[in-house]
Amino acid sequence: MGSKSQQQVQATPSATSAFLVVMYIAAFVAAFNENIINVALHDIMAAFSVSATTAQWLVSGYMIVTSIFTAIMAFLSGRFSTRKLLFFACGCMVAGEVLCLVAPSFTVLLPSRILQAAGSGILFPLMMNVVLSCAPREKLGLYLSLGGACITLGPAFGPVISGLMCTLFGWRAVFVVPLVGGVVVAAAAAKLVRNVGERSNTTLDILSVVLLAAGITAFVYSVGEFSTNVMAGIATLFAAVVVLGLFAVRQLKLKHPVLNVRPMASVRFWPACLLVVVSMMTTFSMSVLLPLYFEGAYGMTALVAGLLILPAIACNAVTSIVGGRVMDARGAWPLLPVGFA
């Protein structure tokens, strides 16, 4: 451990900058990959004869798996080195993109898409961990904001570029750009990325991971069921609440919880979490429904649908920066009523 720490201290500023650039690009590719499927859903539904409810699992399933891997990153970053995690994440993305390119059926396409999500769930927190470990303390805010910008701008370009690829070459072509991006990141990482942080011998509580995965999946499924079967939706939602409750109780009893839920007891914390959930549900649901509406109801191409979504996502990126400055100057309350209005 001593030699690793010494290697980190002796790294030149130029080497550190190159290291951070690779991590920023990795986060951008992962964020870009999140939204590439949205403008292709209409064509995928036609190609495999599946309903919109079924096809949306390409988005929902992706976000569920990303959330799970993000939750267990505290364990992963303690047990495995930065390089191993980065190469594993890139491998998941590249393998998933290749499988999606040749998927003969929806039953192959969906798990291939979920494989990509495992990579994204690792890359986002890994990038932030690297920034916190390597960035100069006096410029930490700047480096963190650059990382946030990469995560925000990725989805902004995703619908447009994937819409162009889908319109010109068909829906399978949307996986080409993130495939190339994953290969480039892995190649650059082989030379520029080094290991940072400390290793630990913490163990992963498998039951907690199972409860978390089951609870999130049941919750997402229940929301989808409300439109077709209200009773099934209510029953599944109740099951989701029970399972997630069991997960939370178990975390309170573990010495090394998968996810520390104690901050949820704070009245200054849990309302903010709830508001974030509502705003993210609105954003992601519109990013799925609007392309389906533009292409299905209006007969627009995937490219035009992507271009119509771009202003909203670009506005989101700009207002997030403005919101950060307002937050520093005046606190959260001016932002809440204005943002939700």
Could you explain the architecture of this structure?
The structure is a single chain. With about 350 residues, the chain is an all-alpha fold. It is about 80% helix and about 0% strand. The protein has 15 helices and no strands. It has helices at about 1-10, 15-35, 40-50, 50-55, 55-70, 75-80, 80-100, 105-135, 140-170, 175-190, 205-225, 230-255, 270-295, 300-330, 335-340. The chain is globular. About 35% of the residues are buried.
Topology as H/E string?
A: HHHHHHHHHHHHHHH
Number of helices: 15
Residue share in helices?
over 70%
Structure summary, number of beta strands: 0
Oligomer: single chain
Strand content: under 5%
Largest sheet: none
Can you tell me the overall shape? globular
Distance between the termini: 51 Å
What is the C-alpha radius of gyration, as a whole number of Å?
A: 21 Å
Mean pLDDT: 84
Poorly predicted ranges (pLDDT <50, ≥5 residues)?
1-10
| Class from secondary-structure proportions | mainly alpha
SSE arrangement:
Elements: H1 2-10, H2 13-35, H3 41-48, H4 52-55, H5 57-71, H6 73-79, H7 82-102, H8 106-134, H9 140-169, H10 176-192, H11 206-225, H12 230-253, H13 270-296, H14 302-330, H15 335-340
Helix pairs in contact: 2-8, 2-9, 2-10, 5-8, 5-11, 7-8, 7-10, 8-9, 9-14, 11-12, 13-14
Give a summary of the structure in a few sentences.
With 341 residues, the chain is mainly alpha-helical.
Any descriptors?
0% strand, 341 residues, globular, mainly alpha, disordered N terminus
